[in-house]
Fold this protein.
Amino acid sequence: MDKVKYAKVNLDIVNKLKKIVGDEGVITDSFDMEPYSHDETPGLKSFPEVVVKPKTKDEVAKLLSLSNQEGIPLTPRGGGTGVAGGAVPIFGGIVLSMERMNKILEIDISNSMTVVQPGVINGNLQRELKNYELFYPVNPASLDSCTIGGNVANSSSGSNAVKYGGTKNYVCGLETVLPSGEVIRAGGKLVKNATDYRMVQLLLGSEGTLGVITEVTLQVIPLPPVKVDLIVPLSEITPIAEIVKEVMGKKIIPTSIEYMDSETVRITKNYLKDSPFLPESSHYLLIEVDGSRKEEVDKDYQTIGEICLNRGAEDVLVVEDSGAQGKLWKFRQSIRDALVSFSPTMIEGDIVVPRGKITFFLQQVRDVLKKYSLSAGIFGHLGDGNVHINILKGKTEDEKWKVITSKAVEELFNGAISLGGKISGEHGIGLIKKPYLPLIVSEAELNLMRKIKRVFDPKNVLNPGKIFD
Ligand SMILES: Cc1cc2nc3c(=O)[nH]c(=O)nc-3n(C[C@H](O)[C@H](O)[C@H](O)COP(=O)(O)OP(=O)(O)OC[C@H]3O[C@@H](n4cnc5c(N)ncnc54)[C@H](O)[C@@H]3O)c2cc1C
């Protein structure tokens, strides 16, 4: 951990903060600050000394300038749905909550762009765009609480990434306040730009360690009017990679190929009062196909269905009704909450491997879990090679839990790395995966990352202690 000594927030600082954002934009009461002391990472909590809620870029600039001058750590925060501890203020100081910068500034139909403030909730943007028959396809399962700023900072994805990609594929412009208080505008409402260093790409996924994003320009696309979902129960895990390979081989790119194991489905069914029909099985694929013409979508889903049955699927259930589809995806989006409610202590994995290695990796995961007698809910974005392994503590004793999970996690990471994978596909490194970064990122690359951080933030006041020390 950093050995930097940071200045404390005293009354004088609080008064200066109030002068910048107004009294109503500052929280100092510890009860009211509790929601800002954690994100969704199980068991991680650290209180800020003060929470500030700016409304404009100029206020953000003054706040960053003050934190920099005074040497007070400042942690940016969006919806607080991160699961790697990125928004947790581990050195206290200031939490900069972007919740009041939540306006959709523009929907520019002719340019297929939207310009938003960082605090806009992803799901709200999706719903607004629908009114214009437009689509922003990045849909993390947390879409009704996470923000576009947080999505950019974590380079997040969702279940639609198989066909449409993730946040990185849609961000065309970013307005960002640097730790010095200076403002840069990288990119813009531009499909192309070869003018400067790729600042947009550098800031994407920088987890609030290089600058605070104050405006985002996103590309949007026409809303595909037709979609069909398939529920595919399987008794064996072996055919899964072959199914994906054969579907792709037929030049069909499904919108989503999601995976859930039986434990995940059992726990989520018990958690939700109203679950969609899912037959008893060991493994499930949830496949969505969308498009602009019904005949094409029908042809694609029928081909996928045949491939699944030929490869040993127990059944293929077709879901075409929008109400039933909504219920199905609500089930998928509720998985994490269900697992947390079942076992408040759990270790979350977000490993990504090349798509073709997925069956092999899932078998490796099951072997490691068996070796340490651990139970887990395994699910995720199989079509992207991105698996969430949520190891559930249940009744395991504390001491044993610590020892076996640290061994199991390292074995899982090393297994993925040996297959050409990475330790995080979408959740980021934050605080939680920081100790494991050297397993996958070379010392030379880590040094380069540290040097970049120093250029942006020489005093290390912006989200310190995240990604690396
Ligand atoms: C139930 C559940 C389901 C999830 N499903 C998915 C999923 O399908 N795909 C996926 O990718 N993730 C998923 N996540 C993880 C999480 O929702 C994403 O990482 C999301 O993008 C975080 O957004 P947020 O607004 O909540 O950010 P926060 O948690 O508030 O912050 C995340 C990081 O971004 C930084 N940050 C936030 N705003 C800014 C800003 N304006 N400028 C600079 N830095 C900023 C913070 O400092 C922090 O490091 C899920 C989480 C939960 C709880």
